[in-house]
Every structure is written in C-alpha cells, then in structure tokens.
Amino acid sequence: MLVAAAVCPCPPLLVPEVASGAAPELDAARAFCVDALGVLAAARPDRLVVIGPAEEAEAGTYAEGSRGSFHGFGVDAAVRLGRERPAPADLARPLPTSLAVAAWLLERTGWADAPIEGLAVAEPLGAERCIQIGREIVAAPGERVALLVMGDASACRTLKAPGYLDERAEPYDAEVARALGAADGAALAALDPGMSRELKASGRAPWQVLAGAAQDAGLSGDLLYDEAPYGVGYLVATWS
Asked: Most exposed among 104, 163, 201, 235, judged by the fewest C-beta atoms under 10 Å?
C-alpha cells in the first residue's frame, strides 16, 4: 500500500558543493525537498523506495548502503543510500546520478524512519511497463510503502537551456505540475514518452512508476515548488 510520495528534481546542482558559487540559487528548491521528505517520514512507512531516471546500463535495483559520488562533476563528495551494510559484496555498482542526489537529500535530513532501496529506471522504458513496476512495488499485503521520486521536467524552457528553446516545453511542464499537485496519476500515465524524450524530461518514467503505485491509494497532492532555473523545470510535490 502506498502511504506517501515525494517528488523532487535531481540535478547535481542541488548539491551545494557541485553548484559552488551558484548554490544559493537553488536554496528554495532544497528547502522544499526537505519539507517533502518530512511528509514521507510523517507517514511512518515500513519501506522507502527511491526511484530515479538512469541510463539503460545503470537501470535496476540498488540495495541500502549502495554508494555514489559526484566525482564526475569535479567534486570530491561521496554519498551512501541509507544505512551502512555489513556485507558489501552486492554494493559494487555506484549509484546513478539521480539516486546519488536522492541519497544526498536523505543524508541531509537524517533519514532513519524506514529501510531504503533504490530503483533506477531506464529513461526509454515504456509507460505500461513503468505503471506495472509501480504496482509491483506496492503489491505486498499490509506493507506501508513510501516513494521518493526523482526527476526533472523539460530542459527546453529557454534559449540557454540544455535542450534549447522548445515552445512545447512550458505547456508540458504546466500539465505535469498540475498533475503532481492534484495527485492525478492518470495524467502522468498519459505522458508521451517520445515527446518527453524530445523535451529532455528525465522525470517521465519515474512519474509513471508513481502513477502505477498510486492507483487506488486515494492520496491527495500538494505542489510545493515549480520553477525553471537554467531553463530546466524543477518540481517538488507531495502525495499523502
């Protein structure tokens, strides 16, 4: 049973050491992400599943204790997904960037409310499969599950955006923001993978996993943050 979800953006710039001198520009986003994780903690889940986009080679599950870093961004900063594990044999794969950002957020808030597991979703994964994965995550009878869903909206909001300006980006982001604020899983499930890819919206697949997990859960939504610094849509929302 899904009892709560938090949706957060996953740019490495969310980590102040990576952002360096530009760090204050995302202070509000960081603060709202912390608030969203507070909603997850208040739901008292038995398990927290962290979902984020990844390259196909990085897709799959990541056990609690898996490690990641931001060395690829020129920063000597390492993170761990939840608690230390005594047997590191199954923890060899480094976390993909989206899950590393999530691990940083969880460390920042001192998460200790439930065991954690990570799920990296390949960005090309079809909508039906994403929805099925979401259903499977919450299928265990009597288990209270919370989701931390990482992903960005379009990266085409301005001329200087990573994907350049695309006139479809703003209405796309507006519909995603509306759906997240209304806990409208059907609208998220209907997002077109092709258009999402063209607009470089990395959150599409994780949002559709959320849509599958939230079916029949009766949750309400709250949109906390909706901005597009650097021409990329960053959204923070909670479902509870």
From this structure: 163
